[in-house]
Amino acid sequence: MNAIDGDSHFSEPLDLFERYTDPRYRDRTVRVARSSTTGERSLIVDGKPMILVDVEELLGALVGYGQKESGADLGTFDRYLIESGRWQDMSERVRYLDREGFAAQVIYPSLGLIWEGSVKDPLLADALCRAYNTWAFELCAGHADRLYPAAHISLRDASLAVRELERVAKLGCKAIFVAAAPVDGKSFGHASLDPVWAAAQDLDLAVGIHLAGHPNYTGHDWYRDEYPGFMFVTMNVIQDPRMALTTMVYDGVFERFPRLRAGTIEAMVGWVGEWLERLDYRFKYMRHTSRMKRPASEYFRKNIWIAADPEERMFPLILKFAGDERFFIGSDYPHAEGFVDPVGKVRTLLADFPSESVGRILADNARAFYGISAA
Fold first, then answer.
1. 3-state class (DSSP) for residue 148
2. CATH number of the domain encompassing residue 43
3. Is residue 318 part of a domain?
4. Is the pLDDT of residue 361 over 80?
5. Full residue range of the structural domain in which residue 332 is found
6. What gap in Å lies between CA 125 and CA 106, rounded to an integer?
7. In this structure, is residue 375 part of a structural domain?
8. For all residues of the chain together, what is the average pLDDT?
9. What is this structure's pTM?
10. φ, ψ at 213 (rounded to 5°)
11. CB burial of residue 23 (10 Å; 0-12, 13-18, 19+)
12. 27 burial class (0-12, 13-18, 19+ CB within 10 angstroms)?
């Protein structure tokens, strides 16, 4: 049992932010409201509903792990299971790790993936991050050797982000979650964010670029006047981490911060081959239009990791093209999109690869990215 689950999620109590948010911002915090006529729930932040996707479908999907394998679908997932207190039982989560063969697990938020696209005020965003981070590290304190919360960091104000980075580092943080969404139309390589990347580098914190719901997700322009449905939104937000990473490469972030570690989380791996070829080819004769000093493949070998889905049929092909040192896996537990028996599925998928390669993908690469020491 030595595999690392590099992408899982909390199912936060729905009143977390009402309990943990700084009192100065509590009247604007994330909360759940119920319709007096239908009983349906809505998610509210800053006094406004979050409406990117159907909330009832979303709440069912956030804790639907294993239900699709039992024949359920988005329309029939248990939408009230999210209100169970079992999701905050970290001893039960550790038992899940034991059953699946994981030595440790990195845990990203769930509600944080949702409110990121609905908050503009940097002070409110910072207050929400601080509330979540405090709760997450308190919850995992009894299993700090196996459960590693990825601290939520908002990029809306670099000085506030750096302050929170310094605070969570003292709590034992190994990695941060940044939403794969542009802030004020700025690249992740914009100079205003340099203090954030400098602090992450100096504090030895991995930067997990995870998809998040936001109104400007890749593909949104095709459905400006209508809701395209849960499937369209969720299959396109996975493209945003790739774009965010591209801006970091293109704008020279890894030149300025050569020890920075960044990874795309829950964005699959099939795109990596085309991405490397496209960037390397254009770098040969267009490099002067970017701030890159070397081909993308060189940054990839030194600074970049990619989280794979355990069932990706393209994964073996990408490994043959790009090598086996920059990829790890995640279960996505307890989300409905997650993968049951993730370790077993990877072993089956990569049965033709040397055991050393499989070991890197199941454990060593995630340890290197997240800075998790071997037992």
1. strand
2. 3.20.20.140
3. yes
4. yes
5. 3-370
6. 22
7. no
8. 95
9. 0.96
10. -75, 125
11. exposed
12. exposed
